[in-house]
Amino acid sequence: MRISVIGCGYLGAVHAACMAKLGHDVVGVDVDANKISELSAGRAPFFEPGLEELLQEVQSTGRLSFVTDMSATEGSQVHFVCVGTPQKKGENAADLRYVDSAITALTPYLSPGDLVVGKSTVPVGTAARLAELVKSQQPSADLVWNPEFLREGHAVSDTLQPDRLVYGVHDGSEQHDAVKILDAVYAQPLEAGTPRLVTDLPTAELVKTAANSFLATKISFINAMAELCDAAGADVSLLADAIGMDDRIGRKFLNAGIGFGGGCLPKDIRAFMARAGELGADQALTFLREVDAINMRRRTRVVELTREVCGGSLLGQRITVLGAAFKPESDDVRDSPALSIAAQLQLQGAVVTVTDPEALGNAARRFPELHYEASTDEALRRADALLLLTEWREYRDLDPYETAAKVSGLKILDGRNVLDPTKWRAAGWTYRGLGRP
Ligand code: UDX
After folding, report:
1. Which domain holds residue 102?
2. DSSP states of 36-101
3. Which of 208, 287, 353, 417 has its CA at a distance of 20 to 30 angstroms from the CA of residue 187?
4. Model pTM score
5. 134-165 tens-digit pLDDT
């Protein structure tokens, strides 16, 4: 099929490459000319494992191109909308200007029978409004919502082998024409057994925000337990192992630490609360305010704990922060708890050095006032205390004895609870985890 993908960021670039991998003819469109020239040259404009290899593989087939000109969407039968919906400045609500302008720019190029497929995370009710907009311009085109659940760092496999496909169509009916079209787009994953659900538009929109809210709640739940473990002298990692063995609960997303960040979870729960308020259902989501508050408290807690580990004052303490990305296998620093902690420590008088295998460029653009060091060895040198804040493999594998020879002070705060406290203590370190005795 001929497919266009509008918006070539973390979601769209991966989606475009994966659609070409599935055998379709794909054109990716973005207003950012730099991004387009990188992608056209087979380079990923951000770090995502496997993406660059995939781009080069599918581009060599001639089935994938990237352009800035929206008119290139003309002739495609399916148009995926993959633009961002960031948090509005100074408000909790989602900023829909990119979605709105993408659809407005696309509609002149729609032909009868075309299908516009929204993938961005939007407040419930947006799809119905946009469907009207599409119909007003091209009465025989249609708009459906097909939310994306990919995780950064696993985006390629999550797109090629999703754990489910959700199609939100106007009447929620399996018989809707769009269902057949989307089934053809996703023929390969469907044949491989991916479950697919057909819903109405609001349900499809809500599936995404509900899933992210549940994940955020799970993380904040275990972080609340970590607060309690700290107060009671218990171990949250063992607690998570034990409750996670109940298969109604499950061990995934029960890793206590510095909390969640990134371009999705934080802004999605806030936009969800804002939308619930507009719908007069704000009470239903007041718990998400607590989820958010627990999460933000983690950052303050780490700053306080660092002060404690440093003997009561941060002034002049040389602190090395291992990790800047919001999670490993990503260079994304949007709402990264690691960076926000690093910035707080610096504001409070510490001399902070931040290192990360992939995210330093993005980090420096966001927090130019921090000192960055690409080499882990250099970053470790003469540190009074280490903070492991993003659990890259390289940091999890640090040897406590070898590391001890490089730093000035044997103090480590494990913000992700991924190190073995016994090993580090045996090597002479003062080890502190979060919610671990
Ligand atoms: C999330 C959803 O998982 C994905 O389905 C959706 O499409 C987009 O939002 P992503 O933002 O890539 O994906 O990251 P995710 O893996 O969910 O992690 C989010 C944050 O939670 C990270 O900062 C991570 O470090 C943190 N986290 C995750 C924890 O603190 N503890 C955990 O147990 C799991």
Report:
1. 2-199
2. HHHHHTT--SS--TTHHHHHHHHHTTT-EEEES-GGGGTT-SEEEE----PBPTTSSSB--HHHHH
3. 208
4. 0.97
5. 999 999 999 999 999 999 999 999 999 999 99
Residue identifier of the C-alpha nearest atom 6 of ligand 1: 149
Neighbour-count burial of 60, counting CB atoms closer than 10 A to its CB (0-12 exposed, 13-18 middle, 19+ buried)? exposed
Ligand 1 atom closest to Cα of 390?
25
Tokens of 331: 């260079």
How much is the pLDDT for 197? Answer: 98
**Which residue, 312, 269, 316, 314, is CA-closest to 293?**
269
Q: What distance in angstroms lies between residue 210's CA and the mean position of ligand 1's atoms?
A: 14
Q: Kindly give the number of the ligand 1 atom that is closest to the alpha carbon of 212.
A: 2
Kindly compute the dihedral angle of the four CA atoms of residues 119, 123, 125, 127, in this order, to the nearest 10 degrees.
Answer: -20
Q: Is the CB of 255 under 6 A from ligand 1?
A: yes
Distances (CA, A) of 108 to 12, 178, 296: 21, 20, 44
Task: Specify whether 187 is located in the same domain as 248.
Answer: no
pLDDT at residue 137 in the model: 93
Do the beta carbons of residue 273 and residue 266 sit within 8 Å? no
| Total tally of structural domains belonging to the chain | 2
pLDDT of residue 391: 98
Residue 292 has what pLDDT?
A: 98
Same domain for 42 and 188: yes
CATH number of the domain encompassing residue 341: 3.40.50.720
Q: Tell me which of 82, 229, 264, 310 is the catalytic residue.
A: 264
Q: What is the CA radius of gyration of the chain?
A: 23
In ligand 1, the atom with minimum distance to the C-alpha of 254 is 33
Low-confidence ranges of the chain (pLDDT < 70): none
pLDDT value at residue 90: 95
User: Going by CA atoms, what residue is nearest to atom 3 of ligand 1?
Assistant: 151
Same domain, residue pair 291 and 336: yes
**CA 416 – CA 232 distance, rounded (Å):** 20
